[in-house]
Specification:
By secondary structure, this protein is mainly α. Helix content is 53%, strand content 1%. The protein has helices at 3-22, 32-49, 63-93, 112-136, 138-148, 163-179, 188-203, 220-224, 247-251, 278-282; strands at 105-106, 180-181. Strands 1-2 form a two-stranded parallel sheet. Helix 4 crosses helix 5 (138-148).
Length: 290
């Protein structure tokens, strides 16, 4: 089968899967479309019932923009890029590079729950490290600015990010799975939904720290300072890079929580230059000065 045919067949398959999800034609645990909606509604209700910043509107600034980003990044862009990923998969397989060809750790003999835990921790570290790179290198930071242009935090801000971040994160996450020999992520939906829930809560207008578990799990108070406009000179590249786990920040000393009042200015220097229009943000970051 030629690459062009593979490209369009993969896109059609992703469209079909998305439609089947919308029409409840897939198992609930694999239904990422309605799973995202349910998690979003639950966290939004918590924001309404227990607001941290009480002066913040229920429909905060850029609420609808962020809501659209959720579906764009998880479904619309996934459809568009699926053809590219399929071509790459076939291309590498022709040279003997498959999902099992570079496995380092064989975890097939341990219980399923242990496999999932290892998968979750490894994936989170890869994302933490990638997140650090997004802040450290200017060429990557230009795209990551879209996420940091959020001026009022709410659950949907979790998935406001430039589509180029998908291009960067996806191969690294696939590589992490390839390292785990014998791992067939049949229950990967558990990790997916847990990560979405934690990510939504981290951006929500809710004050949670999880007590002693704050040293393990990322939380809204910690993540708020990741979005802080003003940071110490010694932390100019950012702080609190954790995605689901805060452990990496405490381990590598990138943690920073000076107080827990919640009323701080968010954004970055010259964030007023960020286009407010979604379509203009699609092209943001591709030229110097963005």
């Amino acid at each position: 089968m030629d690459y062009v045919t593979l490209f369009f067949k993969a896109i059609k398959g992703t469209i079909d899967w998305t439609w089947r999800s919308i029409t409840f034609d897939v198992s609930w645990y694999n239904n990422y479309f309605w799973g995202l909606i349910v998690i979003s509604l639950v966290v939004w209700v918590l924001e309404i019932l227990f607001p941290w910043r009480k002066e913040q509107s229920i429909f905060r600034k850029d609420f609808w923009l962020d809501a659209f980003y959720m579906f764009f990044n998880f479904f619309i862009f996934a459809i568009v890029i699926s053809g590219v990923y399929k071509i790459l998969e076939v291309f590498f397989s022709e040279y003997g590079i498959t999902m099992t060809s570079i496995s380092i750790i064989d975890i097939s003999h341990i219980p399923k729950w242990s496999q999932l835990l290892i998968f979750f921790i490894l994936l989170d570290f890869v994302q933490w490290f990638t997140h650090v790179l997004l802040h450290r290198f200017e060429i990557l930071w230009r795209f990551h600015k879209v996420h940091h242009s959020v001026k009022e935090m709410g659950f949907a801000a979790h998935l406001r990010y430039h589509w180029m971040e998908n291009v960067l994160y996806k191969p690294l996450k696939v590589f992490a799975v390839m390292v785990l020999g014998g791992f067939v992520p049949e229950q990967a939906f558990i990790v997916h939904f847990v990560a979405i829930t934690i990510g939504h809560l981290n951006h929500a207008n809710i004050k949670l720290t999880y007590g002693p578990l704050k040293y393990i799990f990322n939380n809204p108070v910690m993540h708020l300072y990741h979005h802080a406009y003003a940071l110490p000179d010694s932390r100019k590249y950012g702080v609190n890079f954790g995605i689901s786990l805060s452990f990496w920040d405490y381990l590598f000393r990138t943690n920073y929580i000076p107080e827990a009042g919640g009323k701080i200015l968010l954004g970055y220097k010259d964030d007023q230059n960020m286009p407010r229009n979604f379509f203009k943000q699609l092209y943001y970051g591709f030229k110097r000065g963005d």
